[in-house]
Amino acid sequence: MNSKEIRGKFLNFFEERGHKIVPSSLLIPDDPSVLLTTAGMQQFKPYYIGKADPLRDFKSRNAASVQKCFRTSDIDSVGDETHLTFFEMLGNFSFGGPANLDGSGASYFKKEAIHWAYEFIVDVLGIARERITVSVFGGDPSPLKEREASGSFTNHSFKGEGQVSRDAESFNIWHKEIGLPEDKIKEHGREDNWWGPTGNEGPCGPTTEIYVDDVEIWNLVFNEYYGKRLEIGGDGLELEKISSPGVDTGMGLERLAVMMQGVPNVFETDLFYPLIFKLREAVPKLPHETQSVLHKKVLKILADHLRASVFLVADGLRPSNKEAGYILRRLLRRILVYGIKYDIHADLFSIAVDFVKENYGEWYPEVKKTKEILEILFGEKDKFEKALALGVKEIEKYDRITAKDAFYIYETFGLPFELLQELVPDKVKNLNKADFDAEFQKHQEISRAGQEKKFGGHGLILDTGELKASTPEEVEKVTRLHTATHLLQAALRRVLGSEVKQMGSDITAERTRFDFSFSRKLTDEEIKKVEDLVNEAIQKDLPVTYQELPIEEAKKTGALYFFKEKYPDKVKVYSIGGNSSVSSEPAFSREFCGGPHVANTFKIGKFKISKQEAVGAGVRRIRGVVD
User: Fold this and answer.
1) How much is the pLDDT for 452?
2) Predicted local confidence at residue 103, as pLDDT
3) What's the Cα-to-Cα distance from 445 to each of 440, 441, 455, 536, rounded to whole Å?
4) What pTM, to 2 d.p., does this model score?
5) What is the pLDDT of residue 361?
6) pLDDT, tens only, 497-512
7) Sequence-separated (6 or more) residues with CB below 8 Å from residue 104
8) Which distant-in-sequence residues (6+ apart) come within 8 Å of 355 by Cβ?
9) Do residues 443 and 484 share a domain?
10) C-alpha triplet 525, 531, 535: angle, nearest 5°
C-alpha cells in the first residue's frame, strides 16, 4: 500500500464516520508556545479549550486530518533508520460537547475511538489481529497528597486532590469488547501513557498505544484534564477535570508506510526512496569502502533535511538567526556544508524541489511554487558562501580554537564544528564535539532565560493570548499597539480590498504582528498607503468606543470578527471614529473585541510598518511598531 493510498483510506474511513476532513495547517503555528507545528492536534487546540466552535466551523464536533509536523529535537539524531525532522501525522479528533440540533455531529470518547482504531488497522489495512498489542495508562503510582505535603515533586508529578487512577475503561474496552487477551494489554505509567500538554498549559490525559509486531504505530489520547505546568519547561502538572472530554489521536505516516510496504526503514519507502535514488547518483562515493555506512548516513541526512527545508520554505518560513528561521538556516547550512565536505557539485536544491512537487503536490499544493522556493534556497546558499569566505578569514587569526571560539565562529559566520574539522584540523585537534555542544547548550540556556524574562515567565500581568505584557509600562504600550492593529486591518482592507481577513495576531510591548489573507507581496506603494491611512486616523484624534450587543445583532452591524474565534452570546463591538452607537454613522474601524484600547487614536503615537513577510500559501504577515 503506497503512501497516497494510506492517506486516502484513512481520511475516507473517518469521513464515513462523521468527521470533517480538515486540511493540514502550516508548519508555522498560531500557537506561540512552540516554534513549529509538532503535532496533529495543534491547529485544533482552540476547540479543545473552548476558544473556537467546531459546530460553527466544521458542522461537527469531530475532525480528521493529515498534518505536516516538524520536531527540532530530532535534528541531531537524523541519519539513523528512524529519526526525521519533517513527518506527517494521521489523526482523528473529537472535541467534546453535545451534537447538532438534528442529532448529527455528536462527540465521542474512548469506546468509539478504540473500536474505530482497531477496525481501521484490521479491516482496512489488513493487519492480522495476532500481531497487535496495546498499552494503557496504569495510574499514578503514589498518593499526591503526600507529595504535596512534603513539597517534593518529581519531573512527572501530578498536583491535585488524590491520585490519578488507572484507566480501567480503556483496559476493559480492549479486553472485554475487542477481545484482546490480557497478556496483550500492558499497563504503563506517566512516562509512556500520558500525553501533554503541548506548551506550558492545555488539554492532556491518559493514552492507549497500539503496537504491531511490538512497534508503536498509533497513540490515542483521551483529554480528560486541563493541565498547567508547575514550572516553565517542566513536566510537573496541576490538573483540572474537563467537563466535556475529547479525543486526540496520532499515527505517523512514515512509520506506517514502513510496515505496510515491508521495508526495513523509512528511507526505503515511497516517501523517500525516489529522492534517495537521485541523491545516490549525485553524491560521490566516499574514498574508502569501509565508510559505506557513513555514505548511507550522509544520504539520509541530506534526504531528510532537503525534504524538510522545501516544506518549511513552502509554508512561508525564511532563514534567519532567530526562532524558527534559525532552524531552517541550520538545516540548509548543514546541507551546504556536506556539499563542501563531500565534494558534491550536483544541484541538490532543484532535485529536492522537483521530488517534493512530484510526490507531495497532490496533497500539499503550496509545494508547487517551485520558482519561489528555489529563490529562497539559492539566496541562502549565496549568503552562506559569503559567510564562509568571512569565516575562513576569521579562523586564520587563531593558532588554536577553543570551544568558546568555535561557538563564536559558528554563531557569527555559520561555520559548524564539523566544517572546522575539515578546514583547519590542526587548530581544532584538541577540541571535541562534547565541548562544543556544552558551549552551545550554555548559549541556549542563556537565550531561554532571556526569553522567559522578555515574556514575563510567571510574571505576565496581561496575557489575553493575543496581548502580552509584564509591567504597567508594557500594558500601556500593548494597548496602543492593539488599537493600532484595528486601524491596520481597516487600512489594509481599504487599500487591498475585502479579500483581506484576519488570520491571527500577536502583540507584545515591542511590536504588533498581524496575519491576514492575501495572495501576493504588497508593493512599496501599498505599504506606504496603508501606513499613511493609519497615521491619518491617529492624527484625527478619533474616539474609541464600544457597545455590547447580542452576537447575532452585532454581526448585522458589519463589524469585522476573527472567524477562528469562539465568541460569547454577547460581544463588545469597538468602533474607532463615528458615534458610540454602531448603527448611527460609519466608522474608520469596527470590530468584535474584548479590549483593552486607548480612549482616542491620538494616544497611539506614530505607526510604522517594520516588516512584511509570507506566512504560507495566501497568508501575509505585517509587523508594526509605534513611537
Assistant:
1) 44
2) 67
3) 9, 6, 15, 44
4) 0.68
5) 94
6) 988 988 888 888 889 9
7) 18, 59, 60
8) 274, 275, 278, 307
9) no
10) 145
Average pLDDT value over all residues in the chain? 84
The CATH number that applies at residue 246 is 3.30.930.10
C-alpha cell recorded at residue 190:
506517566
> Bigger pLDDT: 527 or 471?
527
**Using CA atoms, how far apart are residues 390 and 311, in angstroms rounded to an integer?**
30
Type of residue found at 34: V
425 preceded by a cis bond (ω within 30 of 0): no
Shared domain for 177 and 205, answered yes or no, is yes
Supply the range of the domain harboring residue 288.
264-450
Domains in the chain, number: 3
Ordered alpha helix ranges (H), 138-194: 144-150, 168-172, 190-193
> Does 49 lie in the same domain as 77?
yes
Residue 213 amino acid letter: D
Record the cell numbers describing residue 512, joined without a space. 504588533
pLDDT score at 162 = 46
Taking each helix axis from N to C end, the angle separating 348-360 and 370-395, rounded to the nearest 10 degrees, works out to 150
Give the percent of the chain with pLDDT over 70: 86
Distance CA 386, CA 379 (A): 11
CA–CA separation, 477 vs 33, rounded Å?
A: 22
Q: Which residues contact 24 (CB under 8 A, 6 or more apart)?
A: 65, 66, 67, 68, 88, 363, 364
Distances (CA, A) of 125 to 12, 195, 219: 13, 26, 17
Omega before residue 365 within 30° of 0, cis: no
pLDDT (tens digit per residue) in 456-489: 333 645 666 678 787 777 888 889 999 999 999 9
- Spatial separation of the C-alpha atoms in residues 627 and 622, rounded to whole Å: 17
Q: Is the pLDDT of residue 50 over 60?
A: yes
Q: Are 582 and 557 contacting, i.e. CB atoms less than 8 angstroms apart?
A: yes
Tens digit of each residue's pLDDT (9 = 90 or more) over 261-272? 999 999 999 999
